[in-house]
Structures are given as C-alpha cells and as structure tokens.
Amino acid sequence: MYAVISDIHGNLEALEAVLRDVPDEVETVYCLGDIIGYGASPNECCDLVREAGMPSISGNHDLAVTDLSTNLAWFNPIAAAAVEWTREQLTEENARFLRGLSRMMQKEGALFVHGSVRDPDEYIINTASASENLAILREQYPNVRVCFFGHTHVKAVAPSPNGPATGSRSLDLGEGGPYLVNPGSVGQPRDGDTFASYVVAEDAREGTRVAYRFVEYDVEKAQARIRAAGLPGMLADRLAHGR
Ligand code: ZN
C-alpha cells in the first residue's frame, strides 16, 4: 500500500496532521510537488519530506522559489509576494533539495506528475484536458494504470469509475484504465473543503484501489502563523474557505 500527497504549500499543521493519519500499512508516501509557497513553514515542510524519505517531484512553486531567473510576472501579485517571502526564508540546503527533484516519477503501474502528463505546468481542469492526457498515457505509457496529478488543488478522478467519483471515498479502478487521480491538496484546498486530503492506493490483481482520506487540522494556527510572518492576509483567509 502506498499514499500520494500533493500541494503542501508550506502548511506544516496540515502536513503533520496528514502524516499522523497515514495508515501503518503504507510503505511509501509519494509527493507530487509544491512543497512550499503560500504557507509560513517552507523549511519545516521540506525537512519533513526529506526526513520521511518521501519520493517527490517538484512543482511550479518549488521551482519559482529556487530558480531566481523565474519571471514572477507569470504569478498573480499575491503568489509573487509569497514566492519572494519564501525565497528569503528558505535555507540553501532546502533550496538545493528542491532544485534536485525531477518533474516526473514512476513506479510499477503508476505515474506521478505535478500538472499533467505532457506539461508539469498544465492544469487538468476539464474533461477535454483529461481526455487528451489519457490519450497520451495510453500511447506513451501503456503499462500505467493510474497517473496521479496535482497542481489544481481539486480532488478529481477521470474517467469517472462507475458513476460520479464524488459519491464515494473508495474507488476500484478496475483492470482497465488508465485513470487520472488528483488527491487534492494537503495545505491549500481549492474545492471548498477546508480539510487536508490525500489518497492511499493498493495494487490488486483486478486493478488499483484508491481511497481518499480527509484530515482535519488546526487551520487557525496555520492562519495565525501566515499573518505573523507578514505574508498577504488573503493567504490566511482562504484556508477557512477552501478557496
Ligand atoms: Zn500548488
């Protein structure tokens, strides 16, 4: 059994709660990137990911913070302010760790990307982009049954297994596939949920079983530390709304 987490975004309270929630049977926790950016604890989150030995890829925020040539005009003003604040905080050791991450990783039957299969910065936000990426998976990764992606901070499964994915926390992704699965965000959900989410997955002969796990954490503490750090207040406010 393995777990997949994504988009921690420097939210230590959420990351710690998620790691406490991970079932004992889980052998490896895979991280889909955006470990930092927005939240008040970039170094603590990097330390935890490294110390836990999680295989991780990088997200656009990890790269924007650690690559000083990134043009911040691509980011909205609040995100850009967060990138600049995080640059000042991040230790050289953690910057080196983030820079060293690859943009994609694979295990038997599973692929892990930040944004999409064809572009780590693409947002898979509708059925059109999902089917285009599913076609690429079929063609270029015939052995991949499930591709985990993040970046949108929105829980999603495509194509919907036996009806709408939102109806059930546990999904049997049968022999067919491939499937695209977004575990949602640990540190900054944008689908209206205020709790952290991630998935646990198990490979079975009949296919892959994926179960969502929802984790309450101390949102107010994370908010208080964002405000105390002098980060834009909106980054604290949004945690209470999941937007
Ligand atoms: Zn993100």
UniProtKB/TrEMBL annotation:
Superkingdom classification of source: Bacteria
InterPro entries (alphabetical): Ap4A_hydrolase, Calcineurin-like_PHP_lpxH, Metallo-depent_PP-like, Pesterase_MJ0912
Domain Calcineurin-like phosphoesterase: 3-201
Transmembrane segments: none
Alphabetical list of CDD domains matching this protein: MPP_superfamily (cd00838)
UniProt signal peptide: none
UniProt GO MF annotations: phosphatase activity
GO cellular component, one term: cytoplasm
Protein family per UniProt: Belongs to the metallophosphoesterase superfamily. YfcE family.
Protein name per UniProt: Diadenosine tetraphosphatase
Species of the source: uncultured Rubrobacteraceae bacterium
Lineage, highest ranks first: Bacteria, Bacillati, Actinomycetota, Rubrobacteria, Rubrobacterales
